[in-house]
Structure prediction request, 234 residues.
Amino acid sequence: MVNGELVALIAAHHREPKYLPLYILEQISKRVKAHEFAVSSFQTHTRLRMIDGIDHSLHQVQGLIERMGGLENAWPEFSAWLIKRFQADGAVLCLDNDYLTSGLDIGADALTRLDAWFCHDQSDLIASTDSVSLTISRFPLSEVTGVLALSILAPKCPYFRLYLTRGEHIHEISWGGRPDKPLEHHDGALGIAPRHSFEKWIEKRMGHSRPWSREARMLALKLRALLMELRLCK
Prediction:
């Protein structure tokens, strides 16, 4: 466990009860603690590099928007940056009732339903989902399955919404043993009924995009702050 999250797990099993001697348990404990420290240090280093990279990227975006005289003029280059930096498949910029799109086509009906959900059915300024069909009721059929959204609502400014979209990603999950395999025997007492075979079984998860990472959400927060500083209403 690192920062309250499970980062590694080793499981062992045997047909008969086995008891490990104390010195073996102590060695295992030392190795686990050393691994926890290494993972924690790596995560801290990675986070610092991530923040530096985000700040550098946003500085470039600021220069682009200022040089082009606003988001709408900068949209072709800005949307390309968004898709690359967020590892998205498409982007949609909404200013009041006007919108610009790039990349993966969300479709008019799906955009209308997404916009209604984001603006009226939830209260977060930044929201994300890797399955719009599960998160948003009555979501129309669309190539888009995942969305990261942010908004800016300020006096005398157009109502700003930005949607980063992703298509479906068929995720394969490997399991040790098929859950529907017939039981081979039952002990008749404790309810233990092991399946002797732990053959690899692949489960395919459909209707989801790749999940949005912490980095993507942090980038969205910083991007929103930058766009507010640029006074988009002027």
In short: The chain has one domain: 22-170+207-229.
